[in-house]
Design brief:
- Helix 2 crosses helix 3.
- The longest helix is centred in the middle third of the chain and has 19 residues.
- The protein has 136 residues and is α+β, with helices and mostly antiparallel strands.
- The chain has three helices and five strands; from the N terminus they run E-E-E-H-H-E-H-E.
- It binds zinc ion.
- Zinc ion binds next to loops.
- The site of zinc ion has 8 residues, from loops.
Length: 136
């Protein structure tokens, strides 16, 4: 398995978590570019039968909370002037929020239309090609 961002072949197994309330998934970290990714996803068709579940009433609040937490992390531990990619960015709400805060965020999602961050697709980021099985 290779890093979907930089192509590095060594990825460190970091943790496991349960998704869709039934699958135990392994997460891997790339020490070359800092990307955290899951094992090869086998659950996407099921997960994205509908991009947003009709019972997901916390979608907006969750994005607001995560944008606040991410702002703290990026401000303390990263170059806040850098370019950032929300890989599998859904409808683009998180990218929209992070851009409104002042970060140079871009969106990519193979399965969901970009509704909130139009014009900021990864193809426009100027940071190089997004590689891997989901390459665009
Ligand atoms: Zn990498």
């Amino acid at each position: 398995m290779k890093c979907k961002i930089c192509g590095q072949s060594y990825l460190e197994e970091i943790f496991n978590a349960k998704i869709l309330k039934k699958y135990s998934i392994t997460y891997f970290f790339c020490h070359q570019c800092g990307f955290l990714q899951t094992e090869e996803p086998f659950w996407l068709e099921e997960a994205y039968a509908e991009p947003i579940n009709t019972s997901d009433t916390g979608y907006i609040q969750r994005n607001i909370t995560l944008s606040q937490k991410t702002t703290i992390l990026l401000s303390l531990f990263f170059n806040r002037e850098g370019k950032f990619l929300d890989y599998a960015g859904g409808y683009g709400m998180f990218v929209r929020l992070m851009r409104d805060i002042g970060f140079d965020f871009y969106w990519y999602d193979k399965y969901t239309p970009n509704l909130f961050a139009r014009g900021f697709e990864a193809t426009n980021w100027g940071g190089g090609e997004v590689r891997g099985s989901d390459s665009i």
